[in-house]
Structure formats: structure tokens, C-alpha cells
Batch of 4 targets.
Target 1
Amino acid sequence: MIKKQEPDIPVTSSSGNLFADLGFAEPEEELAKAQLASHIRQVIKRRRLTQAAAAALMGIDHTNVSALLKGRLGSFSLDRLLQLLTALD
């Protein structure tokens, strides 16, 4: 049985910042926002909070918690994400 040779797929090493690799305008800020959102998700999960309970603790709408947990961070500044994390801890 003869095996087909797989075509070579070009691979590029990461710079360590996905947002820089993808050409975002402010990659360092985007990475920091993603890291803060990840910490917020971890706290919510660790404390077994519902989205409604997390929203009440952070002082934001349930829809904003949903967006945050889904990684939709465009409407959140770094400062705001830090405030939200502080409100949870």
C-alpha cells in the first residue's frame, strides 16, 4: 500500500503575543485585556458564581458579564477590567 505524501503546510513561530501576530493595532493592550478577562473568568468559576451574581458583585449588567465571558472585550478598557476583577476579589 502506497501512502500519499501530505502537502507541506507552512508554519510560522509565534512571537508570544497572538494579537501582534494577527496585526492588531495595540497588541500589548489586547493581550493585557485578554489576561484580565481570563482571571475574571477563573474567579467567577472558582467562586461558582452565576452570571447574575457576578454582575451584581461587579456592578454591571448581566449582558456585559456574558460578553466578558465570551471574550468580547471591545467595550471594556484595561482600567475597567481591573476594577471588575478587584470587585470580585
Target 2
Amino acid sequence: MYAVKAIYDGVNFKPKQPISVKGQYEVVITFLEPVTEMVAGKEQTKKHPRSAFIGSWKDKIWMSDDFNEPLDEMKEYME
């Protein structure tokens, strides 16, 4: 396994270091945190094109307690 940090600008991934692997590899991309930049002497967070981050839907989605229970319509197929 080989890990490389990169910056994603909404279209492209720009590695922060050289990548020294050859050939094709399966990759996993994990968005860690927004990049910050200095604007007029103050640190400012760049906005992600989509404002959906891990946990951003917390307390906004409700799921029924019986969500995983079998549906009555499917009983004949599950016997």
C-alpha cells in the first residue's frame, strides 16, 4: 500500500509529492478536510463545490426503526 497526499480542486487531483509507482493501481480516495488559505492575513477555508462532508447530514435524516424488517409484499419470495 502506498499513500499520497493530494489537493482536489473540484476537477483534478494534484499530488503534493512525486508518485513513484508504475503501472495501473486501484486507489481509494478519502477526503480528509478542506484546504485553508491565507486571505488578507487571515486563514480562510476554501468551500467544497458540494457542501457534503462526513457528518453533514447528521440530525437531518430520519430512518424508521423497522427499516431492516422484511416487507409484507416479499413474504412469499422469502419462504
Target 3
Amino acid sequence: MFKSIWRGIKRIWRPFIVVVVTVVVIGVIYMTQVKRDAQIKGFLAGFANQKQTVSTVTAGTDEWQPTMNAVGTFRAVNGAELALESAGVVESINFKSGDDVEAGAMLLHLRADDDEAHLHSLEAVSELAQVTYDRDERQLKAQAISQATLDIDAANLKNDKAQVAQQKALIDKKTLRAPFAGHLGIRSIDLGQYLAAGTTVVTLQALDPIFLDFYLPQQALDEIKVGQKVAVKVDTYADKSFTGEISAISPKVDAASRNVQVRATLRNPDHLLLPGMYASIDINTGAPQHYVTLPSTAIAFNPYGSTVFLVDDQGKDDKGQPKLVARQSFVTTGPARGDQISVLKGVNEGETVVTAGQNKLHNGSGLVINNSVQPTAEANPNPKDQ
């Protein structure tokens, strides 16, 4: 009987015990989670209140000259790969590689013995035709011959003189002369070599002055004109700057790129600039402008807008230390120049702007300023290979 009663009691209390145990376990887990959340919140609060070390700069104004930039290629005022129209064997070479020559200077002569002998034969025939014509002209005055005979003599004389001139022209094609004054390149032929017609002998380039061809977008047509000054830099001479002026503007805009070709002319007395070299061109346009300028590292460019962090001085904290706080500000940027960028709106002259370390900031972050290392802010940066 007692066993039956005990079994009944167990059947009644077993669910109750399970419920109690479950509630106790859930309570323990809940208290543990609450304690952990409190610890995390405390840690985050401490981190949020922790001062962040940043570098800063005071925003100042600078005078900027609006410029247009382009990349161009140098071209000789006159340049040619010299060759002969006739074939033959090289008899004489009258230049050295790298010489400066005047217009008309003889550079090379091909063997022309056969052609010269044929010329002498034609000259003899022409002289005979001249004698015949002179004699028949006297005889016509004495009415010893007809006018028709004299006309035939005149035609023969003209034909013989034309053949002489033709042969002289053929012989002249055996001689290579400089078509203009300039600087010779490296010769590519040798004495005694047989040259086919059209074989390049040497390049000749007129180097002073020299052209610089480049392209600008069609929007620039309103800001450039013939005679306008240009500044030119070549990486071959990193410390040198060359000046020239616009000498021609193409009257046609390329339909594919919507760019217009522009040509500048530069003096090149030392022959430092060579055809085929590329150069960067700066063209000053308009009056100088005053902009608030910052290092480009100070600007955070985001899809929703560009921002900077300003430093607000809120006096002293409880420990008597300067209380500096970050404040985010949206900005409107303008033209860039090297490592510098202009700010049209959002930053005033004299305000302190964070230049490094802003990725760990938010509005109200405490700040510690350390300007021992500053980002570069050069108008014309010139990085060096190391």
C-alpha cells in the first residue's frame, strides 16, 4: 500500500521538480549574460571615452593659379630620314654621325662613272646640234635652205638639250644633300656598300626651335590662344623647367575624343629636347584664386559626401588638461594640386583639422595631438625611388 502511495507522489511531483530545475538553470544563464553585457558596456564606454592620438594642421589660405595640364610629344620643326632615289655603290661619305650641317651640304655620293660618260656623249650631240642650227640659221638668211629645215634643226637642238638635262638630273640623284640645316643622327651605311633606292642613310633633325604637340579637351578652347605661355617639364631633366608659347591651334576637333590638337614652340639651343620625347605641360589660365588648402589625407571621400574632422577646444577637463574634442564636418572640395586639395565649403581659415588618425574618430571623441610626423602636402611632389 505504501509503495502505491509513493509511486503516486512521484508521479505528481516529478514534473514540478523538472520545472523548478529548468527555471533555476535559465535564471543562472540570464544572470551570467546580464553580468557579461554589463562588462562589455563598461569596456565600450571606457574605449569611447579614451582619447585618440591624431596629427593636425591649421587651415590656411593659399593663392592658386588655375592651370590646365596635358602630356605631349616633341617633334622637330624639320625632320627627315634621308635616302636616295637611285641605287648604286657608295663612293664617298662626307659626314660623321652627330654632325651639325648646313642646308645643301653634300653628305654622300654614289659611283656614277657610266652616267657621267653617257652625259659627255649627250653633251657632244647637243653641241653638234647647236652648231648645225647656227649654220642653218645663217643659210636661211641667204635663202640657201628652207624654213622647214631650220625648224627641224631647232627641234633636234631642244631634244638634245633636254636629254643632257635629264642625264644631269640622274647624276644629281647619285648625290645626297642636306635639305635643311640640322643635326645628323647615326649613319646606317658604309663605304663601298650597295644601296637600293629608298634605303635610309641617316636621320636629320632641326632641333632649335622644337615643336611640342599635345591635346586638350574642347572645353579648353575658350581659355587658350596663340602666343600664350606654357611651362614644360621632362622627367629626363627633373630639376629643369622649359618655357615656350602656343604657336598653333588645330581648326578641327577630333570627333572621336572631342579633343583639339595644340602645338607649342620652344627654344632648344642646347639640343636637350629631342623629337619623340614626352613632356608634361602646364598652361596658366585666368586670374589667381585664394583657397583654403589642406593636405589630401585630411579629406575622407565617401559616397554620401566628403568629410573632415575639426578639433574643438572645450577648455580644461577635471584634471586641468586641455579638453579637445573631434567634430565631423561635411566639405565641398575644389581643385587639387599635388598633395594639396582646396576646400570651398566646410572649413574656415584658422580652424584646426585632423590630418591623420581620423579613421578611429567619431563626433565627440577626445583627442591628443601629436604633430611629430606630418603627411606631405607639396604642390609639386617629386617622389624618389628608394
Target 4
Amino acid sequence: MLARPQHPPQGFIQAAIANNATAKVENIRGAQKTIISFATPGGRFEGTLNDRHLVERIERWFGHAVMGDTTIEAIFSDYRDFGGITFPARILQRQGGYPLLDVMVTGVRANPAVTIDVPPAIRSAKPEPAVGTPERLADGVWMMPAYARSVAVEFRDHIVVIEAPETEAHSIAVIDAVKKVVPNKPIRYIVNTHSHFDHVGGLRTYAAEGATIITHRDNIPYFQQLWAGPRTLNPDRLATSGRTPVFEGVLGSRLMTDGARTLIIYHYAGNMHNPGMLMVYLPKEKILVEADSFSPPAAPLTAPPNALPNLAHWYESVQRLRLDVDQVIPIHGGATTFDAAREMLERFLPNQTN
């Protein structure tokens, strides 16, 4: 296979030359090593070269939206001659100590000719903002269009936002949009559907605003431990605010109401995507906001989706709770209906809705 690691040895050397790297020789466990160090806007790098001046290890320190100061490490071993190209036959990558990639390289080619046909729709596409113009779903309920969307719900004296995905920049854009459509009310709560990184990258941004983070009860110690480390490489708003995040755990359900508006948060246990999955229901508006259980694609499906069991579990949970749903707002995928979920199940799992 042709390996394309995130930080290949040749790329590291080129970056070191371009960024005025420093070098020092050290004796590490009885072997002479050369340590190459440099910094870029993307983080701080350090590489270890062996006595043949081959790159054995690369470490990059950077500020991660969820984990704070962290490292990504690449280890190169078993260098071989691939038709005149010296390249490692094994590449191992870890982030924050956890393995990301472990490949055995069986072939290497230098600058092969590659023809890439770019689809016309991609070639003519124009950049769009990460967060689009808010769309009104009902009186006082707004959807923030994006690849991973958020939903704002207006109460008498405050706002509840559902989901803080991606990054701080994404959440700042959502917060600014929310404040334009619902001015002069604080965002008092941010609801987190589950603990996957693409759904929590902006939680700290809301905590910096003073919002309470509502999540499944079992996620609270996880977030507290995850956020306990330093954030010096790319400090976010929470790190510079001095605030301590405030959490509220959900087990079963959580009712929020001001007499005029009602919002109910449900934990639907047993979902294989994540054990702490929460969904949010607005009974008066018949709107249900969910994540990753039902993410309808833009084009009609010709084969069953890989996550069909999660869809079936979510569908059964909504039925069991007897929720009267018109609109389904997925965090990923287009706004849809509960009937669309039923139709998909009847097509691919015909016995599931009986």
C-alpha cells in the first residue's frame, strides 16, 4: 500500500528547514540521537533522528478544541529501500497516547502521475459560511444551518441552545447568530446530545458565556477530567474567562418550562452509537431534535445505511415515549419528518415498524 501519514519523514525535514529548526545531539538509552525542534502556527514540533539520520519519531504539540494541549506522535521503523527510496516499512501514529494509525508499507513510489476528476458540482461550488442564516422552525425556535447544526429555543427570560458542535469558532458564530434573532436574552443552557468530539467541541464556549451544560449524567466526570489539563497553546474563551463550567446531568428525562414553552430532554438508553444519547422534544411545536440516529442523506438511498440499527432503536424509543412528531431536526443531515424514518425502516427493515 502507499502510506500517507499525517507527518511523513520527508515532510518533517522540509518543514524543519523552512522553519529554522534547531538541532542537538543527545545520548538516549545508549544510542546517539539528533533532536530537531521548530515551531509553526500549527504547533510545536520535535523529531528524533537515529545515527543514520533517519527520522524515528515526530511529536507535534498543539491546542485541541476538546482536549486542550495535546500531542500527536508518529513513529517510523524498519526502514527499507523501495526502488531507491528509503522509507519506513511501519508507521504508527498516536494522539494523546491513543493509537490512530498502524500500517505496514509494502510499496513506495515517488511523485506518481495521478489524474483526479473533480465533479462539476464540486468544481463550481462556492465557499459557504460555516454557519448559515438562522432558519425559523416555529415561533421562538431557530435552526442554525451548518454541517453540524444547533437549535435555539426562546423562553420567557432566557435561551436554550441544543448542541455545540465542532469548534469554538463554530460556536461563536452560532452564539452571534442567536443573539441577533433573540436579542437581550442570555443563553442559560446548552444541551449536549452525546460525548463524541464533533458534538462537544464548542461546549466550553457556552460555559464561558455562563451557560449550564446539560448532558447525560455519566458524561460529567468525563468532561471534568478531559478539561482539567492545561490550555496554553491555543487558549479558548473558557480558559481566559476564569469561569468553572457548570454541569447538570440527565438520567431518564428533564422537563424545562416557563408556562408558555415546554422542552423535554430524553435519554434513550441502549443506542449503539453512544450509551448516553439525548434527544430534545418540543411538544407544542411537535419538533424533535436528535443526533446521529437519523441523518437522512440528500440523495435517495439505494442500499441500507450502515447505522440502520441505530435508526431502528431511535424509532422504537420515540414510539415507546408516544411522542407526536412532525419535524425531525437532525444535527447532521437535512431537516426531515418522522414519516421519513418510518419509510426508510419499512424499505430496509420491513418487520421493524409492525
